[in-house]
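A.,

Following up on our hallway conversation. Structure tokens first:
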């Protein structure tokens, strides 16, 4: 993990919220937590049982790349999540793969070096919606990106 200077989480969160609103990204949420500032795009989704991002999802990641460029000294935590389908082991593996796909996208775009990225899979352990509906399952298939307070 890279050592960085003081992180004004409130200022960073406000700046990111303003940018996400300007870009009109639907279901974009910015939260401050113990790790830093977390960006959740409820609309950044993977298909059922898939780690493939379509063109529209890559466009959303391009917006995040442009935002995160403003924080070059910060590590990035990429956390993958799944809906409650399949086996627990399968969900965990899929969530890790989804996080790794996003992290790899950041590397390919020149945003961060591999050692600046922390990849975590949570499976279906932290749902944000009801897994008994298709809409809820779609919302649970997500990746959260945290600008870490190193």
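Then the amino acids I'd put at each of the 150 positions:
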């Amino acid at each position: 993990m890279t050592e960085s200077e003081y992180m004004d989480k409130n200022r960073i969160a406000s700046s990111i919220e303003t940018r996400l609103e300007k870009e009109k990204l639907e279901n974009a949420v910015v939260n401050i937590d113990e790790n830093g500032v977390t960006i959740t795009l409820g609309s950044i989704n993977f298909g059922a049982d898939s780690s493939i991002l379509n063109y529209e999802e890559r466009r959303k990641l391009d917006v995040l790349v442009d935002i995160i460029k403003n924080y070059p000294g910060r590590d990035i935590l990429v956390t993958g999540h799944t809906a409650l389908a399949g086996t627990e082991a399968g969900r965990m593996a899929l969530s890790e793969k989804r996080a790794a796909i996003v992290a790899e996208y950041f590397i390919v775009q020149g945003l961060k070096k591999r050692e600046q990225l922390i990849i975590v899979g949570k499976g279906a352990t932290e749902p944000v919606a009801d897994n008994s509906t298709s809409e809820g399952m779609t919302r649970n298939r997500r990746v959260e990106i945290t600008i870490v307070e190193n």
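The first strand starts at residue 28 and ends at 33. Curious whether your intuition agrees with the design.

B.
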